[in-house]
Specification:
The protein is built from five helices and 49 strands. It is globular. The relative contact order is 0.10. The protein is mainly β. The strands form twelve sheets. The chain has a six-stranded antiparallel sheet, with no helix packed on it. A five-stranded antiparallel sheet has the order 1-34-33-32-31.
Length: about 500
Amino acid sequence: MRKYRMFKKMISLVLVVAYSVVTFGTLTVNANSGHYTTIASEYRMAYHFSEGLAPVMTGWASGASWGYIDTSGNVVIPIQNRFMDARPFSEGLAAVQLRQTQLWGFIDRTGNVVIPFQFQDVRAFHEGMAAVSNRNPRQGSGEWGFIDKTGNIVVPLIYGAVGNFSHGKAQVVRRSSDNDFWGESGFVDVSGNLVIPFNFVGSTSHFSDGLARVLLEGHEVFRGNSGYIDIHGNLVLSGFSSSGTFSEGLALVSREGRTEFINTTGTAVIPPVLGLNFYGDFSDGLAIVRDVGGRFGYIDTSGNVVISPTFDYAYDFNEGVAIVQRGGQHFLIGKDGTPIFQINDFFGAVMGYAPNLFEGILLVPTIRNGDVRFEFKKLTDAGLAAINPIRVYLDGQRLSFDSSPHIINGRTMLPLRAIFEEMGAEVEWNPQTQTATAIRGDTTVILTVGSLSPTVDGVVVPIDQAGIIIDGRTLAPLRFVAEAFGGTVEWDNATRIATITTN
């Protein structure tokens, strides 16, 4: 559901980054000191990156033209006036609207039209299926169905509303006898067969974590007598006055006057917390909470408050960051609550878009001569490190350093002295030759800055990234540092965690 909402909102991060030094709590942050580079600018409109490409627009009104850029800012699908709108890629295809007929079709990553312009409205592909409509959305609710990636209609356009495919099934809503939108709902498979009957009221949710939220009675989207069905249509959880879609194994529900997070068995794993209100689903491992004073913070999946409620407003985490507001200013923060950038002239709340980071790139509008121009700012290694710093664990204990680890030429570089001393070695430094010598027991390790040939007990151990001095500290490749004294190492690129185990 979250991805679908983001797709509908399109612009995921609408902000202007302030070029100033700001103080947030006790931390002083330089808003643009090497954390990002501008890869594209001067666009009148743009949507977020997806699958390495982003739709961009030049011109305005009848002169508007759409195309796509890559993550280096290069135009890879020509910007052309025949397109009056374009949407982000999903599963290798993107929806574009032809100006001449105002109908929608789909293009591939080379810009070739692979599904002709024939639909009044469309949505993104999910599990090889895209929802399409035969009525202009400006004229009211149309009739919806689904096409496959060849453009064949596999689910007839006969439904008043549809969801996205998930777990091989999609919600469909048939209108009631008086043409009311809130008719009965069921689920179809990828062949259009009704596999879960019309036993439910109005809108349900897509399947997530193997369960879909359904309304058993009542006509409000998230309220009434609601529960959850499994992928076979069996009602497995019920009795909720309100319920949300499962996200990261948890769903926010209300029952018997209690609002809590449950797991897929219905067990309350995060009960009500005194003085806090739950404010949304989990995203990127954290969920928003609000205290009695109206301030926002975050909890983790165990219910622990990991970022205290100190903000005037807060948005979901994604890719390790979230946008928050405090004292009239907006900030991009990491998962420890530390501000990374200050944000100014924030348009997101006004325009109704969900601000976030996609594929390491921020979408930033700037005001030039009274007009909005959209720029893409790509996070540098320093920016990524600020958002998701490299963490090092030695025999289960997290290490702290006075000089941060870095990734250089694809190699993780760690402070040599700090690691070696934690491993029980004595380290000597020769400033003339810029050579570090570490001794532990009968083992001697020698590394010279700039050399690709360090030695262990006189035997050369080749490395492909030489030691380097940053902020007065010598950094050396992770694997060499870990294995020099007989240890082993594991590196998790997604979490940027290095785990070193000694003998």
